[in-house]
Write a structure and sequence with these properties.
It comes from Pseudomonas mandelii. This protein has 494 residues and is of the alpha+beta class. The chain is built from twelve helices and ten strands.
Length: 494
């Protein structure tokens, strides 16, 4: 008899126990990857994306289709067995029910009924398919059996419980129960069927008929259906894998082409960056060299002014003094006019000479340099300059020192010229690799287009020169101007 009744087939849910999960698939902090697994992972990563995808898809899709195929095959098998069982049950009910009507009144079958059932089992048409019959009372007692050794014996009722509810129950499994010893000894595939036997008048279930039918043809049919199911599932799986492979391979080819193009562009960008860096270094070197040559030129011009025109103007003043002793009063007035003009010219030439010739600033720190340029401006103009200096770098390149000296010198000159020296202030600080220099005044400010053109339509060379000096060393130049004053700012990244 069947251990598990299948009258009401239900969907089975398979839950893997933790002990059934293969070792190595549960990640944990103490679990170490073995060398073989590491080598497999390395080899898998060397495969193309399409190959990796096909392998992964084959595993996932293969497992999915395997479970689908198993489920479909099982359902088909159950349906086929149940259909055959119901057909056989209706056939057997027509033979057995007339002989069990007396069980509604008695607990045993009469001798005539038993003999009639024995003769029935000997008929050729029935014997070809049915090999054994049992009739059960509702209390689990076997009142008739082809195997006479179990007649009138009582067995557990689990096997006939569903049949007593009016269901036809079948099973195509091994016959392991005690009452199936006779059927097991036949060594032929069988499936057992339980069918309720009813009283004619009332329809009440008065017994359960159990018969064993040969399963050769049924098993062959089930195997044939299984093969067809697996062929369909396998063909569908292979078709899906092939389609997915070509789709992924096409996408992989596009990705590889794009990667090659990106690598080429990256190499080109790297080459251009290196080239730009080299050009930037050359430009910086050229700018520093130009600044040095420009400063030497300015010094030479200052020296030439001091040694040339200044000396000639001094000689003119001396000769004018000699001439003044022998001149008339009218000539004296003309000589004084000439002497005044020559004196003014000499003073301006000396001022220009001093402005063009910088002091020796190689050995000065930035703080000392800013103090020196402020001091010189105060001496020359008689005005005051406020210094606010933070912590400045001890070391700086000569081009930067020259740029800062000229920047502060020119902005202080502008403050003296346009703001009459009111509120002159120098501030400097160094933070996060950035050097900030600012020169302020409290003048009336400047027009918004002061950096573009002057009233004559010409570019203002002073401000343009400051911007060029600062930006030629990679600095940032800016002007903040309002009615409350002007601030000229420079920023360098050191």
């Amino acid at each position: 008899m069947a251990n598990d009744s299948k009258a009401h087939p239900e969907t089975e849910t398979f839950v893997a126990e933790p002990s059934e999960i293969p070792d190595g698939t549960i990640p944990g902090p103490d679990r170490r990857r073995n060398p073989m697994r590491s080598r497999l992972i390395v080899q898998a990563r060397k495969l193309s994306r399409s190959t990796q995808f096909v392998i992964a898809a084959a595993l996932i899709l293969g497992l999915t289709m395997f479970f689908v195929g198993e489920l479909v095959s099982e359902r088909i098998e159950r349906a086929a067995v149940q259909s055959a069982a119901e057909a056989g049950a209706h056939y057997m009910e027509a033979f057995l029910e007339p002989y069990v009507q007396e069980l509604s009144r008695e607990n045993v079958l009469s001798t005539e009924s038993v003999k009639s059932l024995d003769r029935l089992m000997e008929t050729h048409s029935l014997k070809r398919h049915i090999v054994s019959i049992k009739i059960w009372r509702p209390d689990g007692t076997v009142v008739y059996s082809t195997d006479k050794s179990i007649t009138n014996r009582k067995f557990p009722m689990e096997e006939i419980a569903d049949a007593l509810k009016g269901n036809v129950v079948t099973d195509l499994e091994d016959l392991k129960q005690e009452e199936n010893q006779f059927e097991r000894n036949m060594n032929v595939p069988l499936y057992e069927i339980y069918a309720p036997l009813r009283e004619f008048n009332t329809g009440k279930i008065i017994a359960v008929g159990e018969f064993y039918e040969k399963a050769d043809s049924l098993e062959q049919e089930i195997r044939r259906i299984r093969q067809q199911v697996w062929m369909v599932v396998g063909a569908a799986t292979l078709a899906m894998l092939t389609l997915l492979f070509f789709l992924v391979r096409r996408g992989d080819t596009i990705i590889q082409r794009q990667q090659v193009a990106l690598r080429l562009r990256l190499l080109e960008q790297t080459r251009l960056r290196i080239s730009n860096a080299a050009l930037q270094r050359k430009m910086t070197t050229a700018t520093e060299e130009f600044s040095r040559i420009n400063e030497l030129t300015l010094r030479r011009i200052g020296a030439d002014l001091h040694d040339g025109p200044a000396q000639l103007l001094t000689l003119i003043l001396i000769r004018l003094d000699d001439l003044a002793e022998n001149c008339t009063a009218v000539d004296q007035e003309s000589l004084e006019t000439i002497r005044g003009a020559a004196t003014d010219a000499l003073r301006e030439v000396r001022e220009l000479s001093r402005g063009l010739a910088l002091p020796e600033i190689n050995d000065l720190s930035l703080q000392e340099e800013l103090q020196l340029v402020a001091q010189r401006h105060e001496q020359r103009t008689g005005t005051k300059v406020k210094l606010t200096l933070g912590v400045l770098p001890e070391e700086a390149s000569l081009p930067l020192k020259l740029c800062l000296y000229r920047f502060v010198q020119e902005t202080l000159n502008n403050a003296y010229r346009h703001a009459h020296g009111h509120g002159q202030a120098i501030s400097a600080d160094y933070m996060d690799g950035l050097l900030h220099i600012s020169v302020k005044d409290n003048g009336p400010g400047m027009a918004a287009d002061a950096m573009v053109v002057d009233t004559a339509g010409r570019i203002r060379l002073g401000l343009a020169g400051l911007r060029y000096r600062v930006e030629s060393l990679g600095g940032l130049f800016s002007i903040d101007s309002s009615a409350a004053g002007t601030s000229v700012n420079a920023q360098f990244k050191l």
